[in-house]
Amino acid sequence: MLKGTTHLHITPEDKLTYTPLFFRAGSDGEKQALNELVTKGHVLFVHDEIYGQLQELIKSQNPSVRIKADEYESLITRHLNGVAIGNYGVWVYYPWSRRLVHLLDEDEFIEVRTNRNQYKITREERSTLSTKKIGIIGLSVGQSIALTLSMERGFGELRLADFDVLELSNLNRIRAGLYNMGIPKVVVAAREIAEIDPFLKVNCFFDGLTETNMDDFFTGNGKLDLLVDECDGLDIKIIARYKARELKIPVVMDTSDRGMLDVERFDLEPNRPILHGAVENVNPKTIKELTNEEKIPVILQMLGIENISLRAKASMVEVEQSINTWPQLASSVTLGGAVGADVCRRILLDQFHESGRYYIDLDELIPEKRSTPPQKPVYSNPFKPLTVADMLNLANKRAINNDTDSIAPANDIISKLVTAACAAPSTGNDQPWKWLYKNGTLYLFHDEFRSYSFGDFQKMASFISFGAAYENLYINALELGIEPILHFLPDSSTEKLVASITFKKLHNGPDTILLKPLNQAIFNRYTNRNPAPKAAIPADTLNQLAAYAESITGAKLRWFTNEDELNLLTKIIGACDRTRLLNPAGHYDFVHREMRWTKEDADTTMDGMDVRTLGLSNSQLAALNVIKDEKVVNTIKGLGGGHAFDTLAKRTIANASALCMITLPTYNLKNFFEGGRAMERFWLAATNEGMAVHPLISPFYLFPRVTHSEGEGLDTKSIAELKSLRKEFVNLTKLDDNGAEVFLTKIAMAPMPEVKTHRLPLEKVLFIE
Questions:
Q1: Which of the four, 224, 368, 393, 411, has the lowest number of CB atoms within 10 Å?
Q2: pLDDT, average across residues 223-236
């Protein structure tokens, strides 16, 4: 409060006032009331331009006559016909601004104010429009449409519904003065309409459109002729359309994105599906309480993801992350006001009869022709699929002499062993293995065509997968009374040949007793991303799982259950997930190499990750579909966004019983292979305990790019962030950069997933000579 000044306080009643007062000074009673208004100090400003209005009136009545300036006085005197000019017409008082304005009375005012509409809107059409009733719900684009309709005099009665008050953040798109903050939006709009044309009839619904006032809004004082929907409430958006369809009222909606205007002619098509059938399966009762983020799937379904602008898609991913809600620009809202008002007028005048969606996309209509589109990177696989001839050639060169106690299992036994091996996990379910059985030796090959990806840096991920596959084979062989003997990398000059495996009869030892119970879990093991309440796991169980992992020589397992540790790991994992998805190559791999976006695609390829296995909510799946578009991801990255990916990690880990990390002492392919074995023993043991295992390995696939290279494949900003995250990670774990960091996973108690990833048919991966 400023000192030394006089203040007139605005009362709650003042905030709801939107109807001006009329005084016709030719009437003694009204003239007295007008004088009292002035003498009591209610009027701060008087605007008396009646003479100029009379000039315009006379001019409009004589369009073919060039009237000279000195002729107006006599013409006006004649028109006044003895009435004092101060008593002519009507004085309009606006209580909210305390302004008194002298105007022509209604008929003459309308004639002059609409004079320049001729003949885009004829007098007959103006007369028709003056009988029409329009309802508008939502007053952002709705305000723009309302004001445009008012300026064109496109209605006789306007019903405005919005429950919100004007806030500072609304002024990026709503035309209003700062002094209107805290005033209901319906009042702000109604006042501006009254200041444009006080004779227009406006009714305000301060609670917005509700199920309680809906009948009054639609039919009170006569049925609406047209509904303009610009509300944010999805439930009301749908319920209002059901009501409009019941009453055969057309609906117009502008989305202020790409100039999209939606028209539904329920007056002509009373059985037309709501929103063109896009929300027929949506129950408005269940979406009422959704957050902005949770509304995204419904909005995408309603608008069609393919129809949304690039910036709007990027913004949707950032809702409740780096921005509060969906963006709207004044230019788009103004365009929506113009287009919406134009179509409303033509519908009411029986000049437009269609339903549909229409776009006035300024980026397309007025493109930047000089700009050169950015060069799209080409992602090509430098490897060719590994052939049987390739494998035979490598196997012949690397043949080993079998020990005297070696055995040659029958082909059907080898098929069983390899089937078990191929049930192992692999990055993106790429299944990078191929197998050749010849002369009693089973060869494991690396099909680099299948594994080549951003995630398989220096072949770490593939060799972890090979270790897991071998471990499955080893455990299954023990069950069959056979002991595999591993010969790792017979020749390191070619890493295509990972190992050769010979066999001998099993002599029961410690491994047999420890590992045989794991065999039953081989085909029950899966990645389980299903959400579930957080549940504690007994320390004895955790120690037992650790014992399985550490039964591989050199393997170390560490649990994280402390809240501070989990929070830090959540931050690191989320940032690495974001880095990977915002990286062009990482994004390409995720969208085009790993994910199977439909069941049909998953069933056909028999590899990759069926999107249904991700355990995502509808809103998360919707966001995932948005970020499939590399242009959207590039836009998000350019805006410095993408933190929704961080949040996904936070949600994932929120219900974790613990996080688990497996490491080996030396950074080399042999240790990653052995780490894969430790990982699989741990995972199978966890499966037997009914636990959900959800790998969160992006840090282990990204950190080596800054610890064992100069940031290969990363931009400068990502390198700097990863180095910073690495320091925090090392401070927490006390690891150094020379070890093999193999596995980082969430452990939880969650229901079994209904969908599991496929495996390639055995004949595609096993060749027996």
A1: 368
A2: 93
Which has more pLDDT, 379 or 560? 560
**Which whole number is the average pLDDT over 5-9?**
52
C-alpha distance across the termini of the chain, in Å: 93
- Closest to 264 in 3D by CA, of 282, 252, 277: 252
Separation of alpha carbons 769 and 766, rounded Å: 10
Contact 596, 722 (CB under 8 A): no
Among left, alpha and beta (phi > 0; psi -120 to 50; other), residue 506 is: beta
Q: Where are the beta strands (DSSP E) in 138-229?
A: 157-161, 201-205, 226-229
Residue 595 carries which DSSP code? Answer: E
Mean per-residue pLDDT, 741-745: 97
Contacts of 81 (CB under 8 A, 6+ apart): none
Q: Which residues does 696 contact at the CB level (< 8 Å), separation at least 6?
A: 573, 649, 652, 653, 659, 744, 745, 746
Partners of 357 in the β-ladder: 262
CA–CA separation, 580 vs 588, rounded Å? 10
In the sheet with 658-664, reading across from the earlier edge strand, the strands are 556-560, 658-664, 740-748, 692-695
pLDDT tens, 570-595? 999 999 999 999 999 999 999 999 99
Which residues are paired to 201 by β-bridges?
A: 157
Q: 196 to each of 3, 128, 192, how far by Cα in Å?
A: 36, 20, 6
d(CA 349, CA 128) in angstroms, rounded, equals 7
| Segment 673-702 mean pLDDT | 96
What is this structure's pTM?
0.81
Contacts of 760 (CB under 8 A, 6+ apart): 422, 431, 606, 607
Whether 14 contacts 96, CB under 8 Å: yes
**Cβ(428)–Cβ(757) below 8 Å:** no
In the structure, what pLDDT confidence band is assigned to residue 491 with cuts at 50, 70 and 90?
A: low
Q: Is 4 helix (H, G, I), strand (E, B) or coil?
A: coil
Contact 484, 477 (CB under 8 A): yes
